[in-house]
Q: What sequence folds into this?
């Protein structure tokens, strides 16, 4: 009964929404032009990156905070001692992974650099790095994480702190994240470099921390 | 004002780097600084009589993200820092060394407070979504941290509620962006008219429902009692006092801001939250009266007290309703932080969380019971207290606009609150057989709670400045 | 119909489906899936509706990028809680209202 | 801030600050606690004396703070307020002395005296409130600060009494609040003023004003224990004797009675209240209460309960006086506010002495108590005779003015009510006196706790207060016409409350 | 042509999304969810949003999928 009512409700909602979506809409503001006009002073050439790290860079700053926060919550939820069972590892895969890992890092650097003028950037680069870590973990080359050491905690936080420091430092320019056009490109690259490493670590951390085998009960 | 966001982010990250259980001095220092900043901001806005803004990145809306602080946001910021600072002192004494639940308290609390401050300052709907997620995930993390099965289950329930709430809100933002091409509140407000397309109505509904879910308005309250009742005391205090208020603030902000033309076109809409608020008052009070565990009683009291906030919506057309709402936010925030903190002390002192176990508590921790009584006065709306002023203002606004049933509800709710508050006090005054020797309780636990309770009373003697500040709405 | 609008409508259906799923499904892992479907629906609407003339707009695209990252953070967090709950109780469903 | 502004605040602070400090004191610091208590009480008396002198010379004392825009916390020390303030200040001193003796060696004295001081602060606040809003704040504060005193003993019985007390007073408070907000909504303020403020509203508001009157009187009527709102009073008897004494003679019931005075005279204005036709019903309720309370008192064997029903009856003398339209009744009611306080506190002190010294709680156990405790019984007799309205006691003065007032207002039935009550008073007090003085003592007292030492029948701190208040009962009657007596002060108030000016006999 | 492809993609999205919520076996649900993520990446490409497409494939399908699969594996191992 509950299922039926809910299902019907959801269907009705979708119908209502689609009906409304198909109506003509009075768009009053179009940001496409604004983005295009300000690309020159954004410091990058790819519009999405410009929005992500410059025009709406503040969103991204908080978003990194969310990601870091999620990692901390995962740490906080369970402080179980792990019993990392050795996985069945295929030696061929292991060799492959050893070869792939440096390649993956190169790809990540490329993506980071490419982000300035075509699709790509810190997130994708970080994700690729994380993927490499997951791959190494799955092939048994990288153990899952326990409580991270202080060095690792610095690494996890560095990207965010660099971003925050740049953002706050630019208060001297009159506003948070107010890049001077001349240095915008360099600063964004700095932020992205920091983010790539930290994002890679955090995303990998999400996986490596979760894949700890919780003991019976802490 | 920007430092109110940056500072907690900094101390939260540094506390994380320092390692589990560390960073309390950073946090207390940071919060002290933030309190000064919030006072400064409030004075500036109060003296200038206008809102202040900050264009992030120097772009300005609609391309960039704007931050804005008017009297309403300044008041919320002030409340946040003023509650968080004593609670930080409290928490520093609450968590023992090596307490698993406290290992990551400081970074999580830092992100929570950053989320709150960012939310109160933001003038951009999508940016608010990100702050909501920051706030929600931090809150869930605090509930779950190091807890047992019940706590984890409560956290999961809370997590899904807050995620669905955010998703509804996000869909609303998506529709708004689709319809108007902007998510800046200041750009959006003049564009919305009563002839807005259907999509905008749906967007408004989705956003408000999502936020009501996060505010635990009846019937969306199901997640609150287990989460607030099950978390450690400092966490319950932060959550009940501040986190639910953030989404209420947003509802109010949207209601009197961009969506005002829609609501003016359909006035009956305002009675919907009021009706739910009424049910919340009665249901929450009833459950609190029946509760057997002290913290559950307090958590249900939160459900009831949040109900009052929604009574103001039909009154927003007239004067004084926003002030009444903010006074209730302050009253409940201060009192509930105090009462949860006091409950934490009582539980530590008596070693149990049942109301029956409180017998004789008055002789063991008199200051804490006094705190409980003072905060209870605010919850009951007895004078002199900020809760009394809040009720007075709601009743007066209701009478001024001829909506006397709202006044009756407020008065009846006060009596119900008296029943559950005195249930606790009465038990604590009972003679108890002298059993196990009293556990010593740190003054660092008792005094912050007392300070909060005293603040909730003193605000009831002088609310003029706050009300003038709130009057400055952008 | 433009691709933008088409995918916006798909988004609406996905959102409704996901929402019903979150409310109806008791199994926590599946509920996480449903939440993700719901989120994807909202993202599709955000970009699709804005690009109903099939002209790309970088602003909502950037927003969706932010949203995806937030969603994965939430998912990871939820999984951590579910796994913890399972470790403690062996359950993969929330207990009936124990309030 | 001028002296005229801070003096009323100082009167409040003289009990508030010692109270707050006492809360923080460790249980064992007896000397400091006692010193603080007495210092506060004496300082308050001195300040009140200054105020009394000032007000009779025509000075005006008052101060106000904005709480919300358009809503003030306001105090004024006018003639009417000072009547109540002085009563409270005097009786507080004696009750404090008594309580120090009574609670010697008992646990939780810091808590007790802390709330005791808060309770007096609330009473003073009620007396000096300059508007209904301020009045309400202190009225509820009084409820809250007396609750811990009522349940002080922590027994189940005490809890039951306390719960009933709370239920009555909180519901009453809600009614009062409703009335106040309503009035505030209509008028935009609730300032007390001579001749009232409600008359400013046009005749079309008459209906609303009648309902508000009902709400306000019902609200304060709970504390004044007007039938049928009196149920809490006998239940609250579980409190320790000093609390009962203070509750009954000064703080709680008088706060209610005083509230009725303020509402009738300074919110509605006596003339306007008469024109609204709300005074007669009030008088009828008061009359019913007078007779009903006396009647119920007849059948109580528990001494404190008998006194409690006596209080129910006597407080309504004040209400009756207020409700009689005319200055003579006003004077009678106001003077009884003071007289009843002095007499009833004497009786409660004595009842406490019997219980504490000999373990006597019931009337039937009183046989021969007069010979064992002659001084206490002497004080008790003076108080009891005063209650009956016997000549040469303060009670006679009140009843004389009340009867004259009733006659002047043309309400002869009220005179019959007063006479009936006096007879009933005699019927329930005289047997006690007879038992105490003329019956022979039993072989053993129920529980003799304090042995007679030489000529001292009990601890001197228990003995002194009732003797002093008994002496005051006589003095108030004999010196009634001299300047500074309660009667003269009541006349001063009456002159100021009637708009046309009053010629007094 | 492109309309047809869009329609097909839309149907595939709805089918995979619906099935991953309703299919009986949990492992299949997760696999369907990963497929759904990949289809989403395609849809983003069709919407001229290659950045999101990349992110969706890497994070939405890839990382989330890995997390889910790992969780599934862990839960199954503990049950066993």
A:
């Amino acid at each position: 009964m509950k299922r039926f009512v809910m299902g019907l409700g959801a269907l009705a909602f979708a119908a209502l929404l689609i009906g409304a979506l198909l109506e003509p809409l009075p768009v009053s503001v179009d940001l496409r032009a604004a983005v295009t006009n300000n690309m020159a002073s954004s410091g990058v050439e790819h519009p999405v990156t410009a929005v992500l790290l410059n025009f709406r860079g503040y969103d991204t700053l908080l978003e990194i905070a969310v990601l870091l926060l999620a990692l901390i919550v995962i740490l906080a939820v369970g402080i179980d001692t792990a019993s990392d069972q050795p996985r069945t590892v295929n030696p061929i895969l292991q060799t492959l992974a050893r070869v792939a890992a440096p390649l993956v890092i190169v790809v990540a650097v490329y993506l980071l650099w490419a982000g300035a003028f075509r699709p790509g950037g810190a997130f994708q680069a970080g994700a690729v790095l994380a993927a490499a870590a997951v791959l190494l973990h799955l092939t048994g080359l990288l153990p899952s994480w326990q409580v991270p050491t202080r060095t690792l905690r610095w690494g996890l936080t560095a990207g965010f702190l660099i971003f925050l420091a740049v953002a706050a430092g630019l208060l001297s320019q009159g506003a948070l994240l107010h890049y001077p056009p001349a240095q915008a490109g360099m600063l964004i690259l700095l932020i992205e470099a920091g983010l790539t490493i930290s994002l890679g670590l955090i995303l990998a951390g999400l996986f490596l921390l979760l894949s700890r085998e919780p003991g019976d009960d802490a | 004002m920007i430092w109110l966001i940056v500072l907690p982010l900094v101390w939260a990250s540094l506390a994380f780097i320092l390692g589990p259980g560390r960073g309390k001095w950073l946090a207390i220092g940071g919060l002290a600084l933030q309190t000064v900043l919030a006072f400064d901001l409030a004075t500036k806005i109060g003296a200038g009589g206008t809102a202040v803004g900050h264009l992030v990145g120097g772009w300005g809306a609609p391309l960039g993200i704007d931050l804005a602080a008017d009297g309403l946001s300044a008041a919320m910021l002030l409340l946040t820092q003023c509650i968080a600072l004593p609670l930080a002192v409290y928490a520093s004494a609450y968590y023992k060394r090596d307490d698993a639940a406290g290992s990551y308290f400081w970074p999580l609390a830092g992100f929570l407070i950053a989320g709150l401050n960012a939310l109160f300052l933001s003038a951009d709907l999508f940016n608010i979504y990100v702050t909501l997620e920051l706030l929600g995930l931090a809150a869930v993390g605090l509930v779950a941290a190091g807890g047992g099965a019940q706590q984890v289950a409560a956290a999961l329930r809370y997590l899904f509620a807050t995620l669905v709430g955010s998703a509804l809100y996000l869909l609303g933002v998506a529709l708004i962006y689709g319809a108007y091409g902007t998510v800046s509140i200041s750009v959006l407000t003049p564009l919305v008219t009563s002839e807005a397309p259907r999509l905008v109505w749906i967007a408004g509904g989705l956003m408000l429902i999502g936020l009501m879910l996060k505010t635990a308005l009846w019937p969306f309250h199901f997640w609150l009692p287990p989460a607030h009742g099950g978390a450690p005391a400092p966490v319950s205090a932060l959550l009940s006092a501040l986190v639910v208020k953030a989404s209420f603030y947003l509802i109010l902000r949207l209601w009197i801001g961009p969506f005002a033309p829609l609501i003016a076109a359909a006035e009956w809409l305002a009675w919907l939250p009021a009706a739910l608020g009424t049910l919340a008052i009665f249901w929450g009070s009833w459950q609190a009266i029946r509760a057997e565990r002290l913290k559950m009683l307090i958590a249900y009291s939160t459900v009831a007290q949040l109900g009052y906030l929604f009574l103001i919506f039909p009154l927003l057309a007239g004067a004084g309703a926003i002030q009444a709402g903010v006074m209730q936010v302050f009253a409940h925030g201060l009192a509930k932080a105090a009462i949860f903190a006091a409950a934490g002390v009582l539980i530590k002192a008596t070693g149990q969380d049942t109301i029956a176990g409180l017998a004789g508590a008055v002789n063991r921790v008199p200051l804490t019971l006094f705190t409980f009584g003072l905060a209870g006065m605010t919850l009951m709306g007895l004078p002199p207290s900020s809760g009394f002023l809040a009720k007075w203002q709601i009743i007066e606004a209701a009478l001024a606009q001829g909506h006397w049933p709202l006044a009756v509800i407020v008065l009846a709710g006060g009596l119900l609150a008296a029943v559950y508050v005195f249930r606790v006090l009465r038990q604590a005054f009972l003679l108890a057989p002298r059993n196990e020797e009293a556990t010593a309780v740190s003054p660092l636990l008792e005094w912050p709670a007392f300070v909060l309770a005293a603040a909730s009373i003193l605000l009831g003697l002088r609310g003029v400045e706050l009300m003038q500040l709130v009057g400055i709405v952008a | 119909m433009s691709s933008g609008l088409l995918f916006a409508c798909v988004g609406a259906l996905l959102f409704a489906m996901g929402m019903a799923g979150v409310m109806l499904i008791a199994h926590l892992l599946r509920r996480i899936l449903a939440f993700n479907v719901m989120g994807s629906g909202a993202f599709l609407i955000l970009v699709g509706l804005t690009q109903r003339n099939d002209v790309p707009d970088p602003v909502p695209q950037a927003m969706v990028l932010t949203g995806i990252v937030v969603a994965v953070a939430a998912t990871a967090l939820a999984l951590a809680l579910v796994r913890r709950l399972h470790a403690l109780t062996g359950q993969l469903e929330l207990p009936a209202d124990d309030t | 801030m001028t002296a005229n502004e801070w003096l009323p605040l100082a009167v409040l602070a003289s009990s508030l600050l010692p109270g707050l400090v006492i809360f923080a004191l460790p249980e064992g610091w007896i000397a400091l606690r006692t010193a603080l208590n007495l210092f506060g009480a004496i300082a308050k008396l001195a300040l009140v004396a200054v105020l009394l002198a000032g007000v009779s010379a025509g000075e005006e004392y008052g101060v106000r703070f904005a709480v919300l825009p358009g809503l003030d916390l306001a105090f004024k020390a006018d003639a009417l307020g000072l009547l109540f303030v002085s009563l409270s200040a005097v009786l507080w001193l004696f009750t404090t002395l008594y309580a120090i003796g009574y609670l010697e060696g008992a646990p939780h004295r810091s808590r007790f005296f802390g709330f005791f001081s808060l309770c007096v602060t609330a009473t003073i606040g009620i007396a000096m409130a300059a508007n209904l809003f301020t009045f309400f704040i202190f009225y509820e504060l009084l409820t809250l600060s007396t609750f811990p005193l009522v349940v002080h003993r922590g027994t189940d019985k005490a809890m039951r009494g306390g719960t009933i007390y709370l239920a009555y007073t909180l519901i009453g408070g809600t009614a009062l609040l409703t009335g106040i907000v309503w009035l505030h909504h209509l008028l935009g303020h609730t300032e007390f003023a001579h001749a009232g403020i409600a008359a400013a509203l046009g005749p079309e508001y008459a209906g609303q004003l009648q309902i508000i009157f009902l709400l306000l009187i019902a609200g304060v009527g709970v504390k004044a224990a007007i039938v049928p709102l009196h149920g809490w009073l006998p239940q609250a008897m579980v409190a320790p004797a000093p609390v009962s004494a203070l509750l009954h003679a000064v703080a709680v019931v008088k706060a209610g009675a005083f509230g009725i005075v303020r509402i009738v005279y300074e919110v509605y204005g006596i003339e306007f209240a008469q024109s609204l036709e709300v005074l007669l019903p009030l008088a009828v309720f008061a009359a019913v209460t007078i007779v009903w309370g006396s009647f119920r008192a007849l059948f109580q064997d528990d001494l404190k309960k008998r006194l409690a029903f006596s209080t129910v009856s006597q407080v309504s003398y004040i209400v009756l006086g207020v409700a009689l339209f005319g200055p003579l009744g006003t004077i009678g009611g106001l003077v009884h506010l003071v007289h009843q306080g002095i007499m009833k506190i004497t009786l409660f002190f004595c009842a406490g002495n019997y219980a504490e010294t000999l373990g006597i709680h019931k009337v039937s156990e009183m046989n021969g108590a007069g010979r064992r405790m002659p001084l206490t019984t002497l004080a008790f007799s003076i108080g009891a005779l005063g209650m009956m309205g016997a000549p040469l006691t303060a009670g006679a003065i009140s009843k004389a003015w009340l009867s004259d007032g009733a006659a002047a207002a043309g309400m002869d039935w009220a005179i019959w009510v007063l006479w009936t009550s006096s007879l009933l008073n005699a019927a329930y007090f005289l047997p006690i006196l007879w038992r105490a003085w003329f019956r022979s003592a039993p072989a053993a007292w129920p529980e003799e706790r304090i042995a007679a030492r030489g000529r001292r029948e009990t601890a001197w701190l228990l003995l002194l207060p009732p003797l002093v208040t008994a002496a005051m009962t006589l003095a108030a009657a004999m010196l009634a016409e001299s300047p500074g007596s309660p009667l003269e002060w009541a006349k001063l108030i009456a002159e100021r409350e009637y708009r046309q000016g009053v010629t007094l006999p | 042509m492109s309309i047809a492809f869009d329609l097909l993609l839309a149907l595939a999205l709805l089918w995979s999304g619906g099935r991953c919520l309703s299919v009986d076996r949990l492992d299949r649900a997760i696999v369907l969810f990963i497929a759904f993520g990949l289809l989403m990446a395609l849809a983003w490409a069709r919407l001229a949003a290659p950045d999101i497409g990349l992110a969706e494939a890497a994070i939405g399908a890839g990382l989330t999928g890995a997390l889910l699969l790992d969780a599934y594996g862990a839960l199954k191992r503990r049950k066993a």
